[in-house]
Every structure is written in structure tokens, then in C-alpha cells.
């Protein structure tokens, strides 16, 4: 991809898009990109993602990117990787699936990003240090109050680490989300 010639990679994407379409999927999300060494390299990836998103859109699918904490590093000590990606991908072709836990771990506020880039976060990835809502560090109340600004259409919950047996961990997380008044208020809009 470094050359900016995406021809071979896009052949794979055409097959991937066709397979997702045939399977009845609506979304494709790229889950990871290492921090590029230069802004030029990052721009190449943004151009690439725009092209993938354009192809997805032509097939009736939506294409997005899922963040982690490393996207809050500066590229060439100049620009935060995630900000650059949000500014240089076309919202018509590329949405973002914000992983709220990794935004917080990257020492940022999900709500600040909602306000800075309204409508860009079609999906939220709800996660915490262990069971959802148990750490107190994520600020779910403010997040759910601002889902309209963010552009949220879907929420994905994940438990990456467990402090109890997996079934109990899932139950605790689900109970937290189902009982939280701000979650109910968000969905009653």
C-alpha cells in the first residue's frame, strides 16, 4: 500500500465485499492499524479506506474503522492518528466504531470526540476494564446522553477480561446496561 497502488489489495476487498453481501451483512469494520511512521503513510491508509468504503457503498454495505488506544499517539509528533483519520476519511464512505474504553485509556473523552466529529460514530463499542460499568472510569452516563450527537446507530458490548466466570461476567455486564437509566433514556428517544 505504501506506493499508493491499491489494485491488488482491492481485488481482495471486492471478494470480501461480495462474500459479506452474500452472507447478508450490512457492515464491514477494519479492527486495527499500526501507527504509521509518517503522515504521508497515514494519508495513504486514509485514501485506501476511502476507496474500500466507496466500494462497500456501491455494494450496499457500510465500511468503518475500530479504534484502540494507540490511535491517540501523534504521528511525526504532529497529529493524533485518530484525529487525522477522522479528518481525512470521507464520512460518506467511512464511519468509525468508537471503542469507548480505548478512548478513555488513550486519555481522551468519548463525548469530546462526539462533539468534535458529530455524526462520525455509527457504532459504539461498549467495553470496560473488566465487567461493563464496574471500573467507574468510562463515564457511560455522558456517553449515552450524547449518542445522537455521535450519530450512533448500533452498540456492540464486549468483555475482554473477566474478574469472575465468563457467564457471570456477561450477566453482570448485561444487568448493568439493562438497569442503567441513561441507557433506557437513550433508547427511548
Automatic annotation (TrEMBL):
Give TM regions.
none
- The residues covered by the Xylose isomerase-like TIM barrel domain are 8-178
Query: Is this entry keyworded Isomerase?
Result: yes
Q: Which keywords are on file for this protein?
A: Isomerase
Pfam families attached to this UniProt entry: AP_endonuc_2
GO MF terms, alphabetically ordered? isomerase activity
Which PANTHER family did the record assign? HYDROXYPYRUVATE ISOMERASE, INOSOSE DEHYDRATASE
Q: What is this protein called?
A: Sugar phosphate isomerase/epimerase
Amino acid at each position: 500500500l505504501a506506493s499508493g497502488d491499491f489494485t491488488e489489495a482491492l481485488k481482495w476487498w471486492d471478494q470480501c465485499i461480495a462474500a459479506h453481501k452474500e452472507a447478508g451483512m450490512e457492515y464491514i469494520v477494519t479492527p486495527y492499524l499500526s501507527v504509521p511512521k509518517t503522515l504521508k503513510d497515514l494519508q495513504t491508509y486514509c485514501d485506501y479506506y476511502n476507496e474500500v468504503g466507496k466500494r462497500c457503498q456501491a455494494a450496499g454495505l457500510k465500511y468503518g474503522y475500530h479504534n484502540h488506544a494507540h490511535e491517540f499517539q501523534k504521528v511525526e509528533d504532529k497529529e493524533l492518528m485518530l484525529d487525522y483519520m477522522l479528518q481525512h476519511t470521507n464520512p460518506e464512505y467511512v464511519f468509525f466504531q468508537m471503542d469507548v474504553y480505548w478512548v478513555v485509556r488513550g486519555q481522551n473523552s468519548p463525548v469530546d470526540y462526539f462533539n468534535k466529529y458529530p455524526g462520525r460514530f455509527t457504532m459504539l463499542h461498549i467495553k470496560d476494564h473488566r465487567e461493563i460499568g464496574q471500573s467507574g472510569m468510562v463515564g457511560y452516563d455522558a456517553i449515552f446522553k450524547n449518542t445522537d450527537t455521535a450519530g450512533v446507530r448500533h452498540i456492540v458490548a464486549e468483555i475482554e477480561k473477566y474478574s469472575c466466570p465468563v457467564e457471570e461476567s456477561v450477566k453482570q455486564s448485561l444487568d448493568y446496561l439493562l438497569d442503567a437509566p441513561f441507557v433506557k433514556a437513550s433508547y427511548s428517544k
